[in-house]
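re: ur question from yesterday

yeah so i grabbed the chain u mentioned. its 370 aa long if i counted rite. heres the sequnce exactly as i have it in my notes:
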Amino acid sequence: MNISIIVPSRNEGKNVELLTQRILEAVPPEYRYEIWFIDDSNDDTPKRLAQLAKRYSFVHYLHRVNGTGLSTAILEGFQQAAGDWFIVMDADLQHPPQSLPGLMAALTAQDADIVIPSRFIPGGHDGGLSLPRKLVSWTARMMARLSLRRVRKISDPTSGYFAVRRKTAFSRPLDPIGWKILLELLVRSDYTGVREIPYTFEARDLGSSKFNMKEQWNYIRHLGRLIASSEADYRFWKFCLVGASGVVVNSAVYVPMVKAGVDISLSFVTATVVATVNNFAWNNRFTWNHLKQDRLWYRMFKFGLVSLSGLALSGLSVEACHRFLGLHYLLSGFIGILVSTGWNFVFNSLWTFKKRSNEPGTNPVQGIEL
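ran it thru and got these structure tokens back, copy pasting raw so excuse formatting
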């Protein structure tokens, strides 16, 4: 098995030399590997890389004068590398070379096409980040796991340290923004399984972090593009948008009726019926706009039935959270909304609006499907 270690770098100076030396010391001689530095530096890093390439036959580098960022550097590394497996790691030593033997050993297990060293499974540790950076990292991970079905069961989907089989890396066209190319691979590529192994994230010794507001904005843009490219994920957020419009319609009917002196119960029922009709119409036309097999009146009947059951379930959830668990009424209400939203989406997907068997985005991926 041939392994290519791909290291994007920009103004890392002495770190490229330290990283090479530590890889040489850490990796047992039985592993065949090469190192590809894809460099966008405007300091003396290219000179250091040239010296390394002369000293070690397994070190290669490509200096890009007008490089367009980390993700494109990694894609360039995929093109240059010759290995059966690609290991992607940063040049700043926060991905410790001493963890490479364990990662390389995991590649031989043949039970996954992507292997991710994770900070967040037993044995892993996120010790190299400040508290604010940990908060930003946690927020980014949660955004990805909540938004994208294919990464929901992966603990560290935004990691910059991972291994991917060559055939997986080239299985689909990739078009990432910013730094999180692993997300791009997990959502767009073809693979049979993902495996996570523990590792300890290290504090940065030399140089400065390149994580800034621009990269945070790029991450949000990238997440939006991935959601839009996944029909199943995009449909859920369209469903939530329709639900939000239903809240507006409900309020627009309920409040004026109450103020006009109409009985509160009658006002509530009327507003609920109008909002349900609104939600059905938009979901029928906007959320599930592919082929439907049932007649319109029957779909509307099923939608209403699911909505009523979701309302009952959310009411029970609110009561249980507030009365029996002692949670604040606002938190209980929020949990009730989450329960009803999940219930309504799942059962409308499975029953009210039937999926075609060949619909894009419905093929499960081993180990991470819903």
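noticed a couple things. Confidence is low (pLDDT under 50) at residues 357-370. also The chain is about 50% helix and 10% strand.
anyway ttyl
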